[in-house]
Write a structure and sequence with these properties.
44% of the residues lie in helices and 13% in strands. It is α/β, with parallel strands linked by helices. It has a 7-stranded mixed beta sheet with strand order 1-7-6-5-4-2-3, with helices on both faces. A 4-stranded antiparallel beta sheet has the order 10-11-13-12, covered by helices on one side. It has a two-stranded antiparallel ribbon with strand order 8-9. Strand 4, helix 7 and strand 5 form a beta-alpha-beta unit. The protein is globular and about 60 Å long. The structure holds pyridoxal-5'-phosphate. Pyridoxal-5'-phosphate binds next to helix 4.
């Protein structure tokens, strides 16, 4: 696009924007089983209006926009209460789970810098199932991630393995409630005891689980321990834009007290410009997400959330049972809430995902690791819960189809990848491989199975380089 010489009409612009969505997957029909959390028309409408009513206000300066200070402190306090923090607990709204996690890691790093200047190379201990946001934080903030394997049956980390990974350089322990990949909750109470014993900070990533699990507990479901009532937990991240059903751009990072939180806040008066005090990564920021979150918490209320959560849990149980009943498919582990993944020992799940996609469904592919088989992930939410029967119907048909189709030969793909890796010019080898798997430059592929097969066969480090190259080509 070029900026047009003369501006266009509102009608033309909005129609064109709508037209851009033509190839998007239809989340409104409840067929996309991740990425979008849809609370239904009325709550979404209230959120949208609240969001737009604060679109232009700037969260950069609460002295100019005290309304945003009020919105933020209200929402943070409500979530702290839900996660059973006491009056000493504090927090901030951020743009999402990644920002909340990055801030928790920065806080731990800067606290360690102040209190343990002898630690030159800080480390954080995290399960293999911890979200990639921790790796991103490690990369940005120069903290070494020390990865701990998980139990390949339960997909949870073992507390004693976390303990064994602690060194004099450890500044932070991490666990998930639940992990995204298999939806299981790590042994938070046991890890909390280690944190206390060793005087370490301990972050619980409840980005997906915070609200959903807390309401499940109120509904008397069996919910594992994960919140501020657990001794040793010093910070928690919980996203409102996931199972809080708020508009995107809203998460909470919470700390047990202000003594910890102070290391999160950044101030700068060293320039010729205005005084800058930023508790979060973003500086200028719209008040939209704060207002959207404030609105939906108040619109749904406890009653509304409980109703949603009950429906979503019923749908999840039915879906997992239905998947386990399909010959060749098996749900992994014992998921704690409404997120899970399933594998197949008899068909290629990447191929299955492609076939389902052709039928309008999006199930998310997850690569294999030494402790997890390749699998497809499903996050059930209110907007998809109504489609359990339809999804199972198409899954059964698609499994049959994939079983009868020509299977991708994983051995051949592995051999091709290994041969490509012999090359001295990896960049060229990657480009050749991209052509072979049918990955068009500057465009999105329509089928993913073969591409996923190749990516799964690549060692992690090289897979990352391959993906970086691909995105470097895809975007302008
Ligand atoms: C457990 C967990 N933590 C963190 C994140 C990152 O959240 P975001 O995508 O909002 O940055 C996710 C995203 O799915 C997640 O599942």
């Amino acid at each position: 696009m070029h900026i047009p010489e003369k501006g266009k009409s509102k009608e033309e612009i909005l129609a064109t924007l709508q037209a851009f969505k033509v190839r998007d997957m239809d989340w409104k029909a409840g067929k996309v089983w991740c990425y979008v959390y849809d609370p239904g028309e009325d709550p979404a409408e209230v959120t949208r209006e609240a969001y737009l009513s604060f679109l232009s206000e700037n969260g950069l300066d609460p002295t100019v926009f005290p309304s945003l200070l009020k919105l933020e402190t209200d929402v943070v306090r409500a979530v702290i209460d839900l996660l059973r923090g006491d009056s000493n607990a504090v927090g901030h709204l951020t743009s999402g789970g990644t920002e909340s996690i990055m801030l928790a890691v920065k806080t731990a790093r800067d606290k360690a810098r102040a209190e343990h200047p002898e630690i030159a190379e800080p480390e954080m201990v995290l399960p293999k199932t911890a979200h990639a946001a921790f790796h991103k934080a490690a990369h940005y903030l120069c903290v070494k991630p020390v990865l701990v394997d998980i139990d390949p049956q339960t997909f949870k980390v073992r507390a004693e393995d976390m303990r064994a990974a602690v060194t004099p350089n450890t500044i932070l322990l991490v666990a998930s409630a639940p992990s995204y990949s298999q939806g299981v909750v790590d042994p938070i109470a046991e890890i909390g005891r280690i944190a206390q014993e060793k005087n370490l900070l301990f972050h619980v990533d409840a980005c997906v689980g915070g609200l959903h699990l807390a309401f499940m507990r109120k509904l008397d479901y069996d919910v594992p321990d994960f919140d501020f009532t657990i001794p040793g937990v010093t910070s928690i991240s919980t996203d409102l834009h996931k199972y809080g059903y708020a508009a995107k751009g809203c998460s909470v990072v919470m700390y047990r007290n202000k003594d910890i939180r102070r290391y999160q806040i950044f101030a700068c008066t060293e320039t010729t410009g205005y005084t800058l005090i930023n508790p979060t990564v973003l500086s200028s920021k719209t008040g939209g997400p704060m207002a959207g979150a404030w609105a939906i918490l108040n619109f749904l209320g406890e009653e509304g959330y409980k109703k949603i959560i009950k429906q979503v849990q019923d749908a999840t149980q039915k879906l997992m049972a239905g998947i386990n009943a399909i010959d060749g498919l098996q749900v992994l582990g014992e998921p704690a809430m409404c997120m899970f993944s399933f594998k197949s020992d008899t068909i290629n799940v990447y191929h299955l995902a492609d076939i389902m996609r052709k039928r309008g469904w999006y199930l998310q592919e997850q690569f294999s690791t030494p402790s997890t088989p390749r699998n497809l992930h499903i996050s059930v939410n209110y907007g998809t819960a109504r489609n359990v029967d339809a999804l199972l119907h198409d899954l059964r048909k698609s499994v049959k189809f994939v079983r009868q189709a020509i299977q991708i030969n994983s051995g051949e793909v592995k051999a091709m990848v290994e041969q490509a890796l012999q090359s001295t010019d990896l960049e060229a080898a990657f480009r050749r491989m991209a052509r072979v798997v049918g990955l068009p430059e500057n465009e999105l592929p329509s089928e993913m199975a073969f591409i996923n097969e190749v990516l799964d066969a690549l060692p992690d480090e090289l897979c990352n380089v391959f993906l970086v190259n691909y995105f470097n080509d895809l975007y302008v």
